[in-house]
Design brief:
The protein is an alpha+beta fold and about 475 residues long. The chain is built from twelve helices and 23 strands. The strands form four sheets. It has an eight-stranded antiparallel beta sheet, with no helix packed on it. The protein has a seven-stranded mixed beta sheet with strand order 11-12-13-14-18-19-23, with helices on both faces.
């Protein structure tokens, strides 16, 4: 079991490169929700010819021009259009992946389900590129500042939820732009502009630095405070590595000897003489490994296949247990499709997991839905205790929330991070990039957990340095009935 000190940063949730259609959207002219890929038809080389043209992903500020062999991506606001990149194929779909994709084209409305992605995306055909796509975009400090502010103003969905007056922030920070005479100063100005937004999916990345305005919580906060309070060690990384070794020892001491199996981020074992299953899911990505057990950069479809295969093994090994503990307290997210694949192992009938909409300043898309399909091998319907915490974020919450609605599941631990929206990644005119939240996820009961998180049924500490050093794990001990 290998742990490392890591910041629970939003980049963990960026499962696709920037040149990707990414998330789903729709047009005001089509009020029919796309439930899943079941209403779509397979995409093939002949069908690709129908998709040549220009496509607008409303609510996301993305326009794509597909000429039959390559796709050019434009990031657009009301006032600017920035050509970002050109990549082979339709949004980077390889020829091997075309057969796994599906679509529905009705007039100017396109629904497209990509392999390895949880939600179908919605695009609207345009007759031509926006006229501003022929205009240059200012790349000086003022131009970069305005572009960042304008993109957030149009597409960030949670200013009210986060209690941010964005127009006032522009006025307050504008006088400092003239002082940004080099990259370091400009980065500081942009970071100051974003600083009031307490959102783990908001970030800024330059060539040499990165920043997220999210208030530190959970594991990293606990480690920082505990390290500052001690005087024996002077290297936080070495000190934290020792702490994680102790945490591992605490966990293993409660499990049956020799029962621990590890497949990348998925670890499983038994306890209490084989009667209780234990599963720790450290991530919703990174399941394709090299010879050194390091995660390999692969497509979402390949990662999903590897994750599903690992979970097949775990569920088979734990099938005869009388109850199971599923531990996602340290899971910072990944791919929604992996989250749904894992969650559906616990359902006996098809059911809605989430719907989501893109919500920008002047637009709200129709919902796009994702459903849980019961596993062919049979669902695990015995009692389940789900352990969550403040580091349970993004795709890990996408897993935990529908699981929490199941009758056999009890949730213990601490409130989760409350950052569910996919990260909308955007470039800046000077080559830097940033991320923001523009989607609202609603669970089967129509409830949003953005900025709130999932509150456990029973609150128990999940990662406290003093507990670890004393050989105590209140959450796991509670789950085991100790």
């Amino acid at each position: 079991m290998n742990y490392s000190v890591r910041s629970i940063l939003p980049v963990a949730c960026m499962t696709a490169v920037m040149m990707s259609f990414g998330c789903s959207s729709s047009s005001d002219n089509d009020n029919e929700a796309i439930p899943d890929a079941s209403g779509l038809i397979p995409l093939n080389d002949a069908a690709l010819a129908e998709l040549e043209g220009i496509w607008d992903q409303r609510g996301y500020g993305n326009v794509y021009e597909y000429d039959g062999s390559r796709t050019t991506w434009y990031a657009v606001t009301e006032n600017a259009c920035l050509e970002v990149s050109t990549d082979p194929g339709l949004a980077g779909i390889t020829s091997d992946e075309v057969a796994e994709a599906s679509y529905r084209l009705q007039g100017d409305q396109l629904a497209l389900a990509l392999p390895g992605e949880a939600f179908a995306l919605r695009l609207e055909r345009l007759s031509a590129l926006p006229t501003r796509c022929g205009d240059a975009v200012a790349r000086d400090a003022q131009g970069v500042f305005d572009y960042l502010w304008q993109t957030f103003d149009e597409y960030y969905a949670f200013f009210e939820l986060r209690n941010v007056d964005w127009a006032a922030e522009y006025a307050n920070k504008l006088p400092t732009v003239a002082e940004a005479t080099d990259d370091n100063a400009l980065f500081g100005v942009l970071a100051d502009l974003l600083s009031p937004i307490d959102d783990g999916h908001v970030f800024l990345v330059s060539d040499n630095d990165d920043f997220s305005p999210a208030i530190e919580r959970g594991l990293n906060l606990e480690i920082g405070l505990a390290f500052a309070a001690q005087s024996e060690a002077d290297d936080v990384d070495v000190w934290a590595d020792d702490l994680f070794d102790q945490f591992e020892q605490v966990l293993v001491s409660r499990l049956d000897e020799g029962s621990v199996t590890e497949q990348g981020p998925l670890i499983w074992a038994t306890a209490n003489g084989g009667s209780i299953g234990y599963m720790m899911i450290l991530s919703m990505e990174g399941y394709v490994l090299d010879a050194d057990d390091e995660a390999v950069d692969v497509s979402s479809a390949e990662d999903l296949a590897a994750a599903s295969a690992a979970m097949d093994l775990a569920m088979e090994d734990l099938a005869n247990t009388s109850r199971m503990i599923v531990d996602v307290r340290l899971n910072g997210g990944g791919n929604d499709a992996i989250s749904f694949n894992f969650a559906q192992r616990f359902v006996s009938e098809r059911q809605l997991a989430f719907s989501k909409t893109a919500r920008s300043r002047d637009y709200q898309s129709v919902p796009v839905e994702a459903w849980l399909e019961p596993p062919a091998a049979g669902a695990y319907l015995n009692p389940v205790t789900l352990i969550v915490g403040a580091d349970t974020a993004s795709a890990a919450e996408i897993f935990a929330i529908p699981l929490s609605r199941l009758p056999q599941v009890e949730v213990i631990g601490e409130r989760t991070a409350g950052i569910l929206s996919d990260v909308l990644v955007k470039p800046l005119p000077n080559g830097w990039f940033f991320g923001l939240s523009n989607e609202v996820y609603l669970d089967v009961q129509g409830e949003s957990f953005e900025g709130i998180g999932l509150t456990p049924d029973i609150e128990v500490p999940v990662f406290q340095v003093e507990n670890i050093q004393n050989g105590v794990d209140p959450a796991l001990d509670r789950a085991l009935g100790m």
